[in-house]
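Morning. Coffee machine broken again, so started the prediction first thing and wrote up yesterday's gels while waiting. Chain of 338 residues, entered below exactly as on the submission form.
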Amino acid sequence: MKTLKLLAKSISLLLFVTILFGIPASASVYVLYTPLMTGSQQEPSNPSPGTGTSTFVLDTNLHTLTVSTTFNGLLGPTTQVPNFIGFPLGVTSGTYSNTFDLTLASSYNPAFITANGGTPASAEVALETGILAGKAYLNIHTNVYPGGEIRGFLINSGANFIDFHIDSGTHMGTYDAFEFVLAKPIADLPGGIMTGPTIYVGRACNIDPTIPAATAPDQIAVIKRGYCTFNEKATNAINKGYAGVIIFNNVPGLFTGTMSSPIGIPGVSVDESTGLAIFDKTLAELESDFQTGNLVEGEHITVGIATNENDIPEFPTVALPVIAVIGLMFLFQRRKVV
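Came back before lunch.
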């Protein structure tokens, strides 16, 4: 089972915080993630070698919560109560991504709705308040550790939500993306946008064949996530004259990233499907074309900062011992310090 757990002290505080502070009207998209889910962060801790990472995208305008996670090395096969729709069961490694409509009662445990105003709207406020207060964690339950084998607390990523436009071709349109932390800020570019033609350069790792050089001063390298660090990929693109990098995921779902040190060009992360849409190819077709040694050119793109806030407001700790949304729970306990 995957459960999120909110740590807290009293429902009266929750109501006080909701009324006094509320969810900021200017806020829209919040990106949170678990740096590393481990057994040592469970309560009680356990020696599991399993690890995992997760990204949560909370959109208070669209009233959605997107949950994406990858895990591996668990000692026992996964179990699930209550259901995360489509979550892989009976496995020790896997990936999961789903978007929950927070306006629907079916997205919540009934007990959570009852304890928080009796409607999906009031439950949504309670859920958002708890998440934005930094009191949530994600864990994965298995038959070896029914109470949870690995766990990680959600923290604010600091990533900017980006409007990502494919300007031409079959898949012309607007997609979601995130700006890499420690990449050159797109807001500092002329007009506050990164725009130009694209070319696929593979994984762009040092172990791989040298990537092709940029053929235009505004050309943007499209890179597949995996094997080496984001900095290594970006550095190889810089050395070949690219004006920016787009790194697409190697599994379904969006992700956020941080460069290990500042880089001199902008960089954004996108879903795997968005990366492939730039070239109107399947991954197999894209890799096959790239392996021929020919330039694999994509559509022209334009990327700019969306008009959304990502700052996490401060809220007092709040709580109620009751099962909540999507396995979300309020518990009488303190966050474990590891």
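The helical segments are 11-20, 110-115, 120-132, 230-239, 272-277, 283-291. Going to sketch it on the whiteboard this afternoon.
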